[in-house]
Amino acid sequence: MEEESHWTSIEDMDAFRRIECLTDKVWSIVGSWSPFARDTIGKQLVRAADSVGANLVEGDGRFHHREKLHFFYVARASAREANYWVRRASVRGLLPEDLQLPLQTEISTAIRWINGRIKQRREWMNEVHEPHAVYDAGIECDSSGDQLTN
After folding, report:
1. 67 to each of 12, 56, 60, 74, 144, how far by Cα in Å?
2. What secondary structure letter does DSSP report for 138?
3. Residue 97 has what pLDDT?
4. Residues whose CB falls within 8 Å of the CB of residue 56, separated by 6 or more in sequence, listed in order
5. Least confident segment among 6-20, 27-41, 59-73, 114-128
6. What are the pLDDT digits (tens) for 45-61?
7. Hey, what domains does the chain have and what are their CATH numbers?
8. Which of these, 17, 18, 5, lies nearest to 106 by C-alpha position?
9. Closest CA to 49 of 73, 24, 69
10. Is the pLDDT of residue 143 over 70?
């Protein structure tokens, strides 16, 4: 996955586009299930998967770093929830193994990417973002801070 610059919107990142593809894949899979399976596990899985991208976008649109982090944490939790529903669907015979493993791999990759965004955001919060400025009043002082005479 690519490195995020401080100015790249989340929607422009390849990893985010992969998350969107994952949610579309989940939608397609669940759409073929029986009404009972769709109404129980399917709706939960689709909501959890869609929530990942939605929370990333909402967090990226927030101004303060703490707000951004909050939504990134929710996105990560939603990804973990989606993984749970994938496992339930597989155990209950709704999802064959050849679909389960790729979905779980994509979800795990998304979680790692979100963790990287969280780490990056935390580091960004702890930095001082002020351009370097020279504070020169034209007065020279000695090492004790006393003004030198010319």
Report:
1. 20, 11, 9, 11, 44
2. S
3. 87
4. 10, 16, 19, 71, 72, 75, 114, 117
5. 114-128
6. 999 999 999 999 999 99
7. 10-125 (1.20.1440.60)
8. 18
9. 24
10. no
